Amino acid sequence: MDWLTLVGLSAAAVGAASTGAMFSPGPWYEALRKPAWTPPNWLFPLAWTALYAAMVWAAYRVAQTPLDVAAPGLAFWAAQIVFNALWSPVFFGLRKLGVALVVLIGLWVCVVMTTVLFWRADLIAGLLFAPYVVWVSFAGALNAAIWRSNSKALAA
Fold first, then answer.
1. Residue 107 C-beta-side C-alpha neighbours within 13 Å
2. Which of 60, 155, 147, 156 is nearest to 104 (CA)?
3. What confidence tens digit (pLDDT) does each residue in 23-55 have?
4. CA distance 14 to 31
5. What's the number of domains the chain is made of?
6. 87 lies in a domain?
7. 3-class DSSP state for residue 11?
8. Which of 21, 100, 112, 131 stands the most exposed, by the fewest C-beta atoms within 10 Å?
């Protein structure tokens, strides 16, 4: 096992996850109008923990493939982790829901590209990333719905 690669990928995921911990929802988020299909707050850390573990293991598997196969997928993996790390500070920290949606669109594109490229490099890695595509798609719809429902109140 290549421990250095696994530790590096894990550190990147922990770094991204830490922005979610630093910029938690709080009373401001609770006061926003949200759609009825908004998950309970306790679900988010559970889902993200599973997703981070899957994305690290998927990237580790791809990193073990030949460089010409691994490099494109790992480049998109790195880009998605950056977008992932940006979303919480923009949404919860700056309270810029529209800008957060743009960040989330960038995240979605990178997650889809990572999934496709990982799938080509290693079937299991692609399968490990598939739930992330679903979650980010759902998160995008939720971000858009919250922004739409609260845009007038936030502009005031």
1. 25
2. 147
3. 988 899 999 999 999 999 899 999 999 999 999
4. 29
5. 1
6. yes
7. helix
8. 21
